[in-house]
Design goal:
With 158 residues, this protein is of the alpha+beta class. It has a single domain, classed as Alpha-Beta Complex (YbaK protein). It is built from 5 helices and 10 strands, in the order αβαβββαβαβββαββ. A 5-stranded mixed beta sheet has the order 5-2-3-6-9. Strands 1-8-7 form a 3-stranded antiparallel beta sheet. A two-stranded antiparallel ribbon has the order 4-10. The radius of gyration is 15 Å and the shape is globular. The N and C termini lie far apart (38 Å).
Length: 158
């Protein structure tokens, strides 16, 4: 993971964390990051033959629109979030530590446009004991990256 970032010439900082606090809300609360400055890497499985997979990166204060935006872009009738086991198999990473960089299987990376508007973001660091602090340009440097408008929706705060 670090090697891929270095090979891309991408700016990043490794932020150590307690593995028990790796889930986004717990991490942000414990370490003082805003959810709006945190992004989640989510693997989605398109139900086709063969299966298709994509990693989506969305701000933590939004919800990935898997049933409309992602499904339509994948061109499948059904899709779902990858299970923890599928995520581990495809990426080599556990949920809570997933990052677009250094995945076991190369995956397309769809980045919600709102991510690109942040100054810097905290994202998974490849394992539950670390995160990465990166500018959006480092995410856009990923070889499979595509920035997509309206990939995620605001979370209803009501």
């Amino acid at each position: 993971m670090i090697q891929q970032l270095e090979d891309l010439g991408a700016a990043f900082e490794v932020v150590d964390c307690d593995p028990d606090l790796a889930d986004t809300a717990a991490f942000c609360d414990a370490y003082g990051y805003a959810l709006a400055d945190s992004a989640n890497a989510i693997v989605v499985v398109g139900k086709s033959d063969p299966l298709v997979h994509v990693m989506c990166l969305v701000l933590a204060d939004t919800r990935l629109d898997v049933n409309k935006a992602v499904r339509k872009r994948l061109g499948v009738r059904k899709c779902s979030f990858a299970s923890a086991d599928q995520t581990l198999e495809l990426t080599g990473m556990q949920i809570g530590g997933g990052t677009p960089f250094g995945t076991r299987t190369p995956l397309p990376l769809w980045i919600d446009k709102a991510v690109m508007g942040r100054e810097q973001l905290i994202i998974g660091g490849g394992s539950r004991d670390r995160k990465l602090l990166v500018p959006p340009a480092s995410l856009a440097a990923h070889p499979g990256a595509e920035v997509i408008n309206a990939l995620a929706e605001p979370v209803d705060q009501a």
